[in-house]
Amino acid sequence: MEGRPISDLNGKVAVITGATSGIGAATARALADEGVSVVLGGRRQERLDGLVAEIGATSVGVAMDVRDPQGSHQLVATALDRFGGFDALVANAGIGAYGGIMDLSDEQLRDMMDTNVAGTVWPIRASVPHFLQRGGGDIVIVASVAGLRGAGDEAVYAATKFAQVGLAGGLDRELRAKGIRVSTICPGGVATEFAMGAGRFPDMPGLAEMLRPEDVAAAVLTVLRQPPSMRTLVWSMRSIHESD
């Protein structure tokens, strides 16, 4: 029996948060290589400008903060104005820090909770009305294996990632009948700027054996290429070198 064709991404439009580095930037490049126009959200204007210059006319950058609902509305408005709409949201923005519950400052914990939880909710809330109007779309949340099992010295970070996984599960039940797929990608350690200077350092052992941002970007593309008749709920992935 002939299998169902994989969806073609060429000509699609994707909105990406946390696009200025790491997984977000790698995903932007990977999607652009497949002919996807990308709307890039991030806080660092200089990096946004550099990525847009690299990708070209099929990209646009929006300086915004996912902790502010207005930033997400601006991101969606830009996608509508520039490309007439969008087919996918990649909710990727996130931060982390290593340390016990009493080791991190109030500010660090507040920023982590606001960025990882509220910063996932606001872009989704801004995007759903458009997806409902157009009859469907994809929401891909980049979470973490920490959101599936927790880990020592990152309890609050893990709590924010559990929140993302729970949010995705609830949204799947709420939105799938309306043509909106919600997927969660949960990578293990990824060699990015994540927690750099907050428990992670450029020369730390094992960094070279972690997943690469491009590995996670490949998973995002795979999820988006799924035939319309199927969905992936949670994709847990680790480096071949990572045992736990």
Summarize the SSE layout with pairings:
Elements: E1 13-16, H1 22-33, E2 37-42, H2 45-55, E3 59-63, H3 69-83, E4 88-91, H4 106-134, E5 137-142, H5 146-149, H6 155-175, E6 180-187, H7 213-224, E7 234-237
Parallel strand pairs: 1-2, 1-4, 2-3, 4-5, 5-6, 6-7
Helix pairs in contact: 1-7, 3-4, 4-6
Describe the structure.
- The protein has helices spanning 22-33, 45-55, 69-83, 106-134, 146-149, 155-175, 213-224; strands spanning 13-16, 37-42, 59-63, 88-91, 137-142, 180-187, 234-237.
- With 244 residues, it is α/β, with parallel strands linked by helices.
- The protein has a single domain (13-237), classed as NAD(P)-binding Rossmann-like Domain (Rossmann fold), CATH 3.40.50.
- A seven-stranded parallel sheet has the order 3-2-1-4-5-6-7, sandwiched between helices.
- Helix 4 packs parallel to helix 6 (155-175).
- The longest helix has 29 residues, at 106-134.
- The N and C termini lie far apart (39 Å).
- The model has no long low-confidence stretch (mean pLDDT 91).
